[in-house]
Amino acid sequence: MANKAMVEVATCISCQAGCTCIKQEEVIVILDPLTSPCYASRESALQALKCLVLVLPTIDDNYELRLMIAQRVWVASYDDHKNVRSLAESLREDLFLEEPYEDMCLKLVDDVTHPEEIVCRAAAKCLADCLQCHGKHIVTTIQLLLVRYEEKLEVGLSSCRRYCSALAII
Length: 170
Known about the structure:
Elements: H1 2-12, H2 24-31, H3 39-51, H4 63-76, H5 82-94, H6 104-112, H7 117-133, H8 138-169
Helix pairs in contact: 1-3, 2-4, 3-5, 4-5, 4-6, 6-7
């Protein structure tokens, strides 16, 4: 029910006759379910974006927001679920996202290290293709991935140390 409501709300903020126009914050809210473990939420977010294709900002209108839209749509186009993947690929065509933006390479590291496994898998595939298009970012992207790995390893070790200390008290 909530997923259907998202699509209906998107229609109401599509700047069409009798509708209001979408704001940046609302676009971000619609993008958020694309990182959900629930495939129906990801599918609804893409359907909502398809309702808004004509009013979503271009790269010239709002660079950061367009980059965020492109990243979410590109990652979704590698989703494990066929419907999500198909919607995302169609949306990529509608938004003229023929190849990933160069600035997505480093930003995709956040998705590759995302807590949701479905996002990690799709982002890893997306990052591989993005780096094939923009090979000059391979070294810096790998360096960033190593930093994130070390951060996660350190967090894991500190949790382990706390656990071991707690056991020693018992």
